[in-house]
Specification:
With 113 residues, the protein is mostly helical. The protein contains 5 helices and no strands.
Length: 113
């Protein structure tokens, strides 16, 4: 099966997500929490992607890909986690999972101070 439609380095992301999925799926969470966790894991991936500094077409394409992934998976994450933490504040299992995530991440990469 050819995967030529994937961006360079995207195949390891997909493989990593497939292998990591059982680690967050092992716990049973309410559907909205499970959906947030899945989206947030993708957000975290794009937050940690190295930002190409060059001016080549490949660098510009890669920057656009990273920016689009960040926008798609991270937009709304701050508001969503605050709402989920409020709603599930008495559910220790859910809170343990949500506490693994920073609450204020939109607009900054993972390595920003």
């Amino acid at each position: 099966m050819a995967i030529s439609f994937l961006m360079p380095n995207q195949a390891p992301l997909i493989l990593g997500l497939l292998l990591a999925a059982p680690s967050w799926a092992a716990e049973t969470y309410p559907q909205e929490v499970a959906e947030y966790v899945e989206r947030r894991e993708l957000c975290e991936h794009f937050r940690q992607e190295p930002w190409p500094e060059g001016s080549s077409e490949a660098d510009r394409t890669r920057r656009a890909f990273i920016a689009a992934g960040f926008k798609r998976h991270c937009t709304g994450a701050d508001q969503a986690i605050r709402a989920l933490r409020q709603k599930y504040r008495d559910d220790r299992t859910v809170m343990d999972r949500l506490e693994k995530y920073e609450a204020d991440i939109e607009g900054r990469p993972a390595d920003a101070p």
